[in-house]
From TrEMBL:
It comes from Prunus persica. Residues 62-243 form the Terpene synthase N-terminal domain. GO terms for biological process: diterpenoid biosynthetic process; terpene biosynthetic process. Keywords: Lyase, Magnesium, Metal-binding. This is Uncharacterized protein.
Amino acid sequence: MSSSSVIINSFTTRSMPRRWFGDSTMSSKLNSSFALCRSLPLPLSPNFFYKQKRAANFHPSIWGDRFINYDYSNDNITHVHDKQVDELKEMVRREVFISLNAAGDDGFAHQLKLIDAIQRLGVAYHFEREIEEALERIHGAYHDHAINDDDDGDLYNVALGFRLLRQHGYNVSCDMFNKFKDANGNFIVVDVSGMLSLYEATHLRVHGEYILEEAFAFTTTQLIESKTTHATYSLAAQITQALERPLLKSPERLAARNYMSIYQDEASHNDAVIELAKFDFNLVQSLHKKELSEIIGWWKEVDFERKLPFARHWVVESYLCTTAVYFEPQYSAARKILSKAMVLFIVMDDIYDEFGTFEELEILTEAIRRWDINCMDELPDYMQIFFHTLLNLFNEIEEEMVKEGNSCRVHYAKEAVCRFIVSIAFISCTFNRYKCSCNSCRSCTFNRYKCSCNSCRSPMILAPAVVSPS
């Protein structure tokens, strides 16, 4: 396979900077969430609920057995490509970081563009330390007004620097954009590239930054007009993509694949960077396909399609979501565990929302609350299958964490999942089964329950994501 070719199959998908979590209040927020769950009122009498089981009639999986077989002969090609990737990484490190760092302030603008390209092409995880060091120096230049107060500074570079620094958790003032306004306080129309760069930067605004609110409205209008009048074909494609899905809201692998076609046609592109991106994309995609094959094998082994036919079979969709959480190769074990957890939570959701009777759900909820395999005999057959698989998954997580010496994390994951499952159990039962008895007064209460349910599901999925091995 040519180095310039890129395989386009099933996987095309932002990691948050660690700086954002330096003084994290996550622990207090989780405690508040747990307190909220404990304070939820118990559902009303089961007499209000439907007694019969209901068939949800979910659409069958569209994927069939497409991803179950993985060609392990690709592993030999992978080994060869790994060596080429290592060589290209060293070349990029010399050209982008070592040489431009030596250039000092004169190389900031060029380095910003290359760092942006590296990030958008999905290979930034190879250069985390170098990027942090470069941005630290650039932030110092911004702080010392060496860049943003430059009268000759163009909007494209100023907005690009602002976006990159904010993405990495630096506190950069948006007042630098005031110099791009006229005497009446209106933004000055500049080139389309500058408008697009400012538009992407506005998505990192925080509450109260009115200048970025104005910039967002202004650039949106200007880009819509420029798309059909003043932009080249390549730039028009970027504008269309940005208006539909800005960088901050775009799955990283999908954005990387799309940007390859754009970046390689730019006159100023770096050959080593684009070649590295292509090799790396193929290698990571091959790993993702292998992981998905293993997960589908696990799905076939637990045999939920036959044993729990009422549930949704969202295996491929669940795995694709995990690649949006962390796609990097070093998180392979975490992706597999999180994918399985998401599949089980979807099945659990269908048990509570669509199939189980109130009496059965009470037993399952108590079994999950106690987290005891001895509760198995009290459960109906189909719930035994689900509960046994759930326990096995967390045993698998614990085994992986023991290898890393972090087995204590599993206890907190179980505690979090138990609490959220119990809260969802009550909310889901009450809201979905009691619709026929809701009057206008009760509907307001149940709307609150529904919102609580949606809020609780995210931390339940985040628990195994956070404790999963790296």
